[in-house]
Each structure stands twice: as structure tokens, then as C-alpha cells.
Amino acid sequence: xxxxxxxxxxxxxxxxxxxxxxxxxxxxxxxxxxxxxxxxxxxxxxxxxxxxxxxxxxxxxxxxxxxxxxxxxxxxxxxxxxxxxxxxxxxxxxxxxxxxxxxxxxxxxxxxxxxxxxxxxxxxxxxxxxxxxxxxxxxxxxxxxxxxxxxxxxxxxxxxxxxxxxxxxxxxxxxxxxxxxxxxxxxxxxxxxxxxxxxxxxxxxxxxxxxxxxxxxxxxxxxxxxxxxxxxxxxxxxxxxxxxxxxxxxxxxxxxxxxxxxxxxxxxxxxxxxx
Length: 275
Fold this sequence. Notes:
By secondary structure, the chain is an alpha/beta fold. It is built from 11 helices and 10 strands.
């Protein structure tokens, strides 16, 4: 479960960490700056821990990786750059991330996200040609909605991002439609009637299938629901209230992800998220 996704929700009596554990999640993703007491409390009740951060300048990569290694986090997802960097500057950011990952023996997954150097498909695939060792946290909603994947040939666009799919080891759970990045998909059954949900299922299944076929030593795939609050304009509002229960919707997204995963899993594999 992504910690930021809890913002604005009513905390349950037992507290969020116990609620996350009781809901069947395997772990929690914290955000920068890292709160050490929360990390310790999560581990005490058996939750795994990973983190996230932003790399604006090359030194940020080593700083974040060093902090994560000191806290014994399993991995980090990173927003890298702002998207308007020249090629040389963007390359230095990527090099810094890759070097920090090796130096601190820590998986660093760059995110497909708006306002980063990986905000569009063409540039991202171009970077992979130069830096094939890149590994990704895919937040497909940023591309599906931001680049309007259904405007044109959807299948051709999915084929184009195959190099990203082949390098994805982490996903943020969010589903958007062609014009809104985060929407309520209803129940698992109701979501099956929505074409844009089917599009996400297609991509998520391809990601899982590719992961299972890889032989790069990574044994765990992490899926973290990241339904964010209306304060930052992700959750939609009606009559001054968020239109959906983000906690309940997170469970639906996990169910969808598990369905996609088990479609292509030939044998029991460790998908870290919710049971």
C-alpha cells in the first residue's frame, strides 16, 4: 500500500499500519522524507517496506539511495527530472540513478510520470536504447490519460512501449479513462464492463508476463495502489466530497492486478501487494 494514498482518509481505530496488514497487504511504500518510527513500526507487525523520492539533480540519486540503504528499504521508485531537460542533462540524471543503484546494491525504479523525463513514450523508449539497464515503476495512467492512448492505434502504442514493459518491476495501481487520470471503476464485476479498464488489464498482463519470463535475478514484483486525494486533484469530487472510497477502490485494483497476474503465472510466484 502506498502511504500517500491514505491522505485525507479517516484513520481506523487500530491505526493505518495495522489496517494495512489486516487487509492482507504484504508491505507499505513510504514517501520522502522517510519517517524512521513508521518504518520500524511497519516491520514490527510484519510489513515489508520500500520508499520513493525525487531526483532533480544528479547528487539526489546517491543521497536517496544511501538513506534507503541505511533504513534497509527493499527498493525505491523515483520521479526523475522535470521533463524540460536537454538530452545531456537528462542523461546525467539517468547515469546518476544507475550508478547509485549499483553503489548501494538497491533497485531504483524510475517512474513513467508527468513532469519527469519519462513523461512521454517516445523519449522514454529513446532513453532505453542508450541505457538498456533502466528499470521502471509503471504508472500507466500518466501515459494512458496524459498521452491519450486511445486517440489512434492503441495496440500499436502498446507495442511501441514494449521495451518499457520488458523492464517494469513495480507498478503503481491507478486506473484512468482517456480524459481523467484517476477514476472509480466500481466493483470488480462492474469494472469488467469498462473499455478503459480492459486496456489497463491488457498492459498490466503484458507487464506481469514479461516479468515472469525475465532472467535478471529479480524474484519479486511489487504492485502498490496509489489512489491520491482530492487535495492534489487526483480524486474526483461531487458536492464537496470525494466520489469514491479510495481504500475500498484500492482493494478492487489489487483484485484486478491479481487476476492479470494469475492469467500468465505458470506456477505460484511472489506478487507483493494484497492477498
